[in-house]
Design brief:
Strand content: 25-35%
Number of strands: 9
Low-confidence stretches: 1-10, 21-43, 103-108
Number of domains: 2
Shape: globular
Strand order of the largest sheet: 1-2-9-4-7
Helix content: 10-25%
Radius of gyration: 16 Å
CATH class of the largest domain: Mainly Beta
Mean pLDDT: 76
Order of helices and strands: HHHEHEEEEEEEE
């Protein structure tokens, strides 16, 4: 688990740069205070921010300049793919027009992300180790309309965050002891659903 060094204001600024103040890809929006990012109001955590950025990148693949700005924002978080997972970002970079000067400097390490797809009725379970006494964050975002069932279980299969049906959500907790947890995603819909999961 890696901890963010970006200040909350910098995170909000990055999100405003890439989204223009609104989420992409047809996500529902609601009235928000000036400067707030719809769908993420009240959160400035890097895991949720990176999940939003990944969805924004996928929905901007046909706009090389916008895609380049989004990938520069992703780089600023120091986000990296999880070991053993396919990385869609590598393919996006081949078509993106990167800005001459990235808006922010990146970090050596940052949140780890993973892209996946769930068939109708399918479930994926992702084991993950988290350090005791340090805040853990897991965020999920989906570019499509399907809402996935999302929860995180401790070593005794008890949820550390209330199970929820969501298209974008973050689970945050502080383990008392270092140990293995399990991230569980299920697709109750009748359609395949893509997702991005981010761990910080």
């Amino acid at each position: 688990m890696i901890h963010s060094k970006l200040a909350p204001m910098a995170i909000r600024s990055l999100l405003c740069v890439i989204t223009g103040g609104a989420l992409l890809g047809g996500w529902p929006t609601q009235a928000s205070p000036p400067g707030a990012v719809p769908g993420l109001s009240g959160t400035s955590e890097p895991a949720a921010a990176v999940a939003t950025i990944l969805v924004a990148a996928e929905t901007s693949r046909n706009d090389p300049r916008r895609l380049g700005r989004i990938l520069a924002a992703l780089d600023a978080f120091g986000a990296r793919p999880m070991e053993g997972s396919a990385d869609p970002v590598a393919a996006w970079r081949t078509t993106a027009t990167m800005p001459d000067r990235p808006p922010y400097r990146g970090r050596v390490l940052g949140p780890a992300y993973r892209a996946g797809k769930l068939d109708p009725g399918a479930t994926v379970r992702l084991p993950q180790l988290f350090d005791g006494g340090r805040t853990a964050r897991v965020a999920i975002a989906t570019p499509g309309l399907a809402a996935l069932d999302f929860t995180v279980l401790d070593g005794e299969a008890r949820p550390v965050c209330p199970p929820a049906k969501a298209r974008n959500r973050e689970c945050m907790w502080t383990p008392l002891f270092s140990g293995r947890f399990e991230i569980v995603l299920s697709n109750p819909s009748g359609n395949s659903a893509g997702y991005y999961i981010v761990i910080d």
